[in-house]
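> example.struct
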């Protein structure tokens, strides 16, 4: 390689690159081997890109014939060299890709570095900061690259010691693609050995679909196969698309290793499904259910990574957007179609009937996997549900077609037992004359279990599902029925109990007096015998918004429609009886307000005027606790 021009320039790294480099070298020191995985993965991506661009760009035809990745090492010169014959980079691309951190995820990565090296190593691949991991083992890195299709004198050399700046110089490079030379630092010389490199490549990169050729010193008898320097190359990895191999020949370990490479997740998958479909449409589908959620999964609803689309073994694009609904965005895998045209674009994919069919299968197979793990229960299911349950629930809201199927996979706390329950188990336990599935939404299980709304149900032995996840409110608002059984909130006061004792005339009269005292803050006030322990409860009309929902909306900064809840009082309760004995007047009004405010509080609701509540309670306490002959008003 001869120098074409002498124009050199020094550039400073983006401030974030500096910060990242320091953090990474510390955090990942004990996980140093991942640098090779990252560089091989970049070489593989660059090879994929060239093959893809060569499909449509005449000038690149034929350049994608030899897409191997070459690795060599020199213990004397202390170097490790990784060469690909992929797309390469122009000067502008080098500056953009190796001098700055363009990806938005990187900021999050920096913020999320925990100092727990192991976990950081898991995170690193998810953020596209892979290249810089070379500095874990190298004190200088030299990148020589040329964009495929450009002239030989358009090459670029990038050199850096990873300390604030890098050097750029134009070079002449006879071949397109990228060569990265690592000057391996003193502490890591042990990496420069055949067995080490073989081991690391097989461990992390066995399923890279291009051959990874390691140059090794030829043994004596092999000299004829070797080149002039006594070096021969050996292909170290499997180099075959796993999903295209016959299922019967694939070992479990291979499926797991492929997942880890694909998803950058050393934890391995929870389960997987591999389908090879032949017929009017031919495609392979390899789907994985991960064990753990990448940490931005909940927030990042538009994640496009996850499912990779191949056409006849050629990587086309990350196509999670086209192939996965959002509520399954945690799935990982590969789709390889034999029928789609190789030069397909995102626009064409958007409404391709072929792809829509594949998408429907992806959804069905994903739900099959989830259903299987749900049926098996146990630790695997718990892990799955903890990591992805909330996301899965979005399916009830979003996917009209699969609504009931997704709903069947959900589990909730229940008044019936300490175990979580699904709708099907609930229906199985229902009494014959029970016509609805009853639920209560609340902020947490504690609030739910003590709710006054449950008393009537408890005393009649009717099971109530306790929905304590934020999204549950939305789920039930989209699920009015499950298998012909209506879903009803216990807060609507709708338990139609024909045997219940009718309220007395006196109780009805008290309800009227309370309504008068409270005025417009309350809707209807009724006396019923549904509660056993509480004095009163707030009820919503069937279509009104629950107190929970109102709270969420307020927290989310959304306007909450005005609504006035009703009040139900329990004439058997001592407090209600004391209030009844009180004549009309300020004290009666204060007691009525107190009853209402307490019902709101028990619901986890917010009081319109908390200070007034405290004042009322204090006045009552003072009057109740001090000697009977010195009655005053403390307010
Ligand atoms: P990521 O690969 O996750 O995007 P990296 O830091 O590893 O993040 O690489 C940054 C960018 O540099 C890549 O997206 C790619 O555009 C470019 N790049 C890195 N290695 C190569 C290579 N061998 N050939 C071509 N481009 C490369």
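> example.seq
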């Amino acid at each position: 390689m001869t120098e074409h021009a002498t124009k050199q320039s020094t550039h400073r790294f983006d401030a974030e690159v500096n910060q990242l480099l320091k953090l990474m070298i510390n955090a990942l020191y004990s996980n140093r081997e991942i640098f090779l995985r990252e560089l091989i993965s970049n070489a593989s991506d660059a090879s994929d890109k060239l093959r893809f661009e060569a499909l449509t760009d005449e000038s690149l035809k034929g350049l994608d014939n030899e897409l191997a990745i070459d690795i060599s090492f020199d213990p004397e010169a202390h170097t490790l060299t990784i060469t690909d014959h992929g797309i390469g980079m122009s000067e502008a691309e080098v500056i953009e890709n190796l001098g700055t951190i363009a990806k938005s995820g990187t900021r999050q990565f920096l913020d999320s570095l925990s100092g727990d090296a192991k976990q950081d190593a898991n995170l690193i691949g998810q953020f596209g900061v892979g290249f810089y991991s070379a500095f874990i083992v190298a004190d200088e890195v030299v990148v020589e690259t040329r964009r495929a299709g450009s002239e030989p004198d358009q090459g670029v050399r990038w050199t850096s010691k990873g300390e604030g700046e890098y050097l750029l110089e134009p070079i002449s490079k006879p071949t397109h693609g990228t060569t990265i030379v690592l000057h391996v630092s003193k502490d890591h010389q042990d990496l420069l050995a055949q067995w080490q490199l073989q081991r690391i490549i097989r461990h992390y990169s066995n399923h890279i679909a291009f051959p990874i050729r390691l140059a090794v010193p030829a043994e004596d008898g092999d000299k004829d196969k070797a080149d002039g320097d006594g070096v021969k190359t050996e292909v170290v990895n499997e180099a075959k698309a796993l999903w295209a191999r016959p299922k019967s020949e694939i070992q479990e370990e291979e499926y797991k290793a492929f997942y880890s490479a694909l998803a950058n997740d050393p934890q391995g998958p929870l389960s997987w499904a591999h389908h090879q479909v032949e017929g009017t449409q031919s495609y392979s589908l390899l789907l994985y259910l991960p064990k753990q959620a990448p940490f931005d999964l909940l927030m990042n609803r538009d994640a496009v990574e996850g499912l990779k689309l191949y056409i006849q073994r050629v990587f086309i694009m990350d196509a999670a957007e086209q192939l996965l609904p959002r509520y399954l965005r945690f799935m990982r895998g590969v789709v390889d179609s034999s029928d789609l045209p190789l030069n397909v674009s995102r626009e064409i994919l958007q409404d391709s009937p072929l792809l829509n069919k594949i998408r429907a299968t992806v959804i069905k197979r994903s739900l099959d996997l989830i259903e299987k793990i749900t049926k098996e229960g146990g630790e695997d299911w718990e892990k799955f549900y903890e990591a992805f349950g909330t996301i899965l629930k979005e399916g009830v809201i979003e996917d009209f077609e699969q609504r009931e199927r997704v709903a069947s996979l959900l589990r909730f706390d229940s008044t019936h037992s300490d175990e979580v329950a699904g709708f099907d188990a609930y229906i199985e336990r229902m009494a014959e004359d029970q016509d609805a599935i009853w639920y209560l939404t609340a902020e947490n299980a504690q609030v739910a279990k003590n709710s006054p709304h449950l008393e009537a149900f408890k005393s009649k032995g009717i099971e109530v599902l306790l929905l304590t996840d934020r999204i549950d409110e939305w789920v039930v608002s989209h699920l009015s029925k499950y298998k012909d059984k209506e879903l009803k909130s216990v807060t609507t006061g709708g338990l139609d109990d024909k045997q219940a004792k009718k309220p007395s005339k006196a109780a009805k009269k008290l309800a009227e007096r309370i309504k008068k005292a409270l005025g417009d803050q309350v809707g209807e006030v009724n006396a019923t015998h549904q509660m056993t322990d509480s004095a009163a409860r707030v009820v919503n009309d069937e279509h009104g918004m629950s107190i929970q929902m109102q709270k969420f909306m307020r927290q989310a900064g959304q306007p909450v429609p005005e609504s006035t809840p009703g009040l139900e009082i329990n004439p058997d309760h001592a407090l209600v009886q004391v209030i009844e004995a009180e004549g009309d007047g300020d004290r009666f009004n204060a007691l009525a307000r107190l009853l209402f405010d307490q019902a709101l509080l028990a619901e986890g609701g917010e009081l319109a005027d908390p200070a007034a509540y405290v004042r009322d309670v204090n006045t009552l306490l003072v009057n109740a606790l001090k000697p009977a002959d010195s009655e005053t008003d403390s307010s």
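> remarks
The chain has three domains: 9-239, 243-376, 505-625.
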